């Protein structure tokens, strides 16, 4: 079966067409600047990238252009849309309504809409993509795969906040966690790589990118994760503050004469390693600046690595042990220095890094030494493949 995977943002749309038998991507692409002017970057497997500059007023127009690119005589990879057996949609927030992926029905769409308050920037965009595909491919079955679903196995002691319980009852304010599709995929690969029994395994997955989170995976199930009601909680990230004393919000608002909305914008878009360093949210820029003697850039990187190590330590306690630690996403897969820096705090676990093996980028490998008591893995994430697998399983 050929599965079209759609990841719809507010002004962008990422896609892959995946052959479920070989699990290879037949084509990948990105629609940018939807609603502004529009650009489609389309790359067929084994071919050159094709850039199509064409107005995309709506997401439906963007998806129409994607389908035309996939069936184009010159750079297409299928002869007709009849070859697409299913569509898998990434949906950011499923709240407590969706504990697993599900075939999309009118009732499911209504349920996703009811979660809009929990992810106002993401869920409406995801729904736009779903409705556009339904309009253009009304007879093709579709599946929603939720970022939050993997974390619905967390126990109440892990997801409840220390606020009046009525707010959980009335508004479902609790920790939900994100990057679930990535955490699930990487944990499964780590279990296979290390040769563990899934039902007797303890994995910590570190999804480290511009957005970053850490998850404790016990016997294949998420039991705790660093992101919360929103992706703002947890680790310091590229531009996000991560967890802070909540009183800081009021303090800054009063001192700077700013509204809560303005302070939240600062915490989401102007904080993290960008705010600490004053240089960039990109760790490559920080490394270059630190090498050139910029102490704040060096400090920002140190603070980030320290926070990751702290979460790993707390999740080892939560699971009463750990078999493997897996690094993934842009930073986790590609930055040997961050991996080494985080691992340097974990000697108490009997972890030792093989620095020659660790000198890799974007390659699946065990980078700890043979005698390391806990294995350290680098595993490139593949959320699109995970979505395709979920879609095929349900269809």
Automatic annotation (TrEMBL):
<dbReference type="InterPro" id="IPR004372">
    <property type="entry name" value="Ac/propionate_kinase"/>
</dbReference>
<dbReference type="InterPro" id="IPR000890">
    <property type="entry name" value="Aliphatic_acid_kin_short-chain"/>
</dbReference>
<feature type="site" description="Transition state stabilizer">
    <location>
        <position position="240"/>
    </location>
</feature>
<dbReference type="GO" id="GO:0000287">
    <property type="term" value="F:magnesium ion binding"/>
</dbReference>
<dbReference type="Pfam" id="PF00871">
    <property type="entry name" value="Acetate_kinase"/>
</dbReference>
<feature type="binding site">
    <location>
        <position position="7"/>
    </location>
    <ligand>
        <name>Mg(2+)</name>
    </ligand>
</feature>
<feature type="binding site">
    <location>
        <position position="383"/>
    </location>
    <ligand>
        <name>Mg(2+)</name>
    </ligand>
</feature>
<comment type="similarity">
    <text>Belongs to the acetokinase family.</text>
</comment>
<comment type="subunit">
    <text>Homodimer.</text>
</comment>
<comment type="pathway">
    <text>Metabolic intermediate biosynthesis; acetyl-CoA biosynthesis; acetyl-CoA from acetate: step 1/2.</text>
</comment>
<keyword id="KW-0547">Nucleotide-binding</keyword>
<dbReference type="GO" id="GO:0005737">
    <property type="term" value="C:cytoplasm"/>
</dbReference>
<dbReference type="GO" id="GO:0005524">
    <property type="term" value="F:ATP binding"/>
</dbReference>
<feature type="binding site">
    <location>
        <begin position="330"/>
        <end position="334"/>
    </location>
    <ligand>
        <name>ATP</name>
    </ligand>
</feature>
<feature type="active site" description="Proton donor/acceptor">
    <location>
        <position position="147"/>
    </location>
</feature>
<dbReference type="InterPro" id="IPR043129">
    <property type="entry name" value="ATPase_NBD"/>
</dbReference>
<keyword id="KW-0808">Transferase</keyword>
<keyword id="KW-0418">Kinase</keyword>
<keyword id="KW-0067">ATP-binding</keyword>
<dbReference type="GO" id="GO:0006085">
    <property type="term" value="P:acetyl-CoA biosynthetic process"/>
</dbReference>
<keyword id="KW-0963">Cytoplasm</keyword>
<feature type="binding site">
    <location>
        <begin position="282"/>
        <end position="284"/>
    </location>
    <ligand>
        <name>ATP</name>
    </ligand>
</feature>
<dbReference type="GO" id="GO:0006083">
    <property type="term" value="P:acetate metabolic process"/>
</dbReference>
<dbReference type="InterPro" id="IPR023865">
    <property type="entry name" value="Aliphatic_acid_kinase_CS"/>
</dbReference>
<dbReference type="GO" id="GO:0008776">
    <property type="term" value="F:acetate kinase activity"/>
</dbReference>
<keyword id="KW-0460">Magnesium</keyword>
<keyword id="KW-0479">Metal-binding</keyword>
<protein>
    <recommendedName>
        <fullName>Acetate kinase</fullName>
        <ecNumber>2.7.2.1</ecNumber>
    </recommendedName>
</protein>
<feature type="binding site">
    <location>
        <begin position="207"/>
        <end position="211"/>
    </location>
    <ligand>
        <name>ATP</name>
    </ligand>
</feature>
<feature type="binding site">
    <location>
        <position position="90"/>
    </location>
    <ligand>
        <name>substrate</name>
    </ligand>
</feature>
<feature type="site" description="Transition state stabilizer">
    <location>
        <position position="179"/>
    </location>
</feature>
<comment type="function">
    <text>Catalyzes the formation of acetyl phosphate from acetate and ATP. Can also catalyze the reverse reaction.</text>
</comment>
<feature type="binding site">
    <location>
        <position position="14"/>
    </location>
    <ligand>
        <name>ATP</name>
    </ligand>
</feature>
């Amino acid at each position: 079966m050929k599965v079209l995977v759609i990841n719809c943002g507010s002004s962008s749309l990422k896609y892959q067409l995946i052959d479920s038998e070989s699990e290879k991507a037949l084509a990948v692409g990105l629609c940018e600047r939807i609603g502004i002017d529009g650009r489609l970057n389309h790359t067929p497997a084994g071919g050159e990238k094709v850039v199509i500059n064409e107005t995309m007023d709506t997401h439906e127009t963007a998806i129409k252009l994607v389908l035309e690119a996939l069936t184009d005589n010159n750079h297409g990879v299928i002869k007709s849309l009849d070859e697409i057996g299913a569509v898998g949609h990434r949906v950011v927030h499923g709240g407590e309504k969706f504990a697993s992926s599900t075939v999309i029905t009118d009732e499911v769409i209504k349920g996703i809409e009811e979660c809009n308050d929990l992810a106002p920037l993401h869920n409406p965009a995801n729904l736009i993509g779903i409705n556009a595909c339904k309009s253009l491919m009304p007879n093709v079955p579709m599946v929603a795969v939720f970022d939050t679903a993997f974390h619905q196995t967390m126990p109440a002691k892990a997801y409840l906040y220390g606020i009046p319980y009525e707010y959980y009852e009335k508004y479902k304010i609790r920790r939900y966690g994100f990057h679930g599709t990535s955490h699930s995929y990487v944990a499964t690969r780590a279990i296979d790589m290390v040769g563990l029994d899934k039902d007797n395994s303890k994995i910590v997955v570190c999804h480290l990118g511009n957005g970053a989170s850490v998850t404790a995976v016990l016997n294949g199930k998420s039991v705790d994760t660093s992101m919360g009601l929103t992706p703002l909680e947890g680790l310091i990230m590229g531009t996000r503050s991560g967890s802070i004393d909540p009183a800081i919000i009021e303090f800054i608002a009063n001192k700077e004469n700013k509204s809560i909305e303005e302070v939240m914008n600062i915490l989401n878009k102007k904080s993290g390693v960008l705010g600490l360093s004053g240089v960039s949210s990109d760790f490559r820029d920080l490394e270059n600046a630190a090498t050139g003697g910029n102490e704040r850039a060096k400090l920002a990187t140190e603070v980030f690595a320290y926070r990751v190590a702290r979460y790993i330590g707390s999740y080892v306690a939560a699971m009463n042990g750990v078999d493997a630690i897996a690094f993934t996403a842009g930073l986790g897969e590609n930055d040997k220095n961050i991996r080494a820096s985080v691992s340097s705090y974990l000697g108490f676990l009997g972890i030792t890094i093989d620095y020659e093996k660790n000198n890799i980028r974007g390659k699946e490998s065990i980078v700890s030494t043979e005698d390391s008591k806990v294995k350290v893995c680098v595993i490139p994430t593949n959320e699109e493949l995970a979505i395709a697998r979920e879609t095929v399983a349900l269809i």
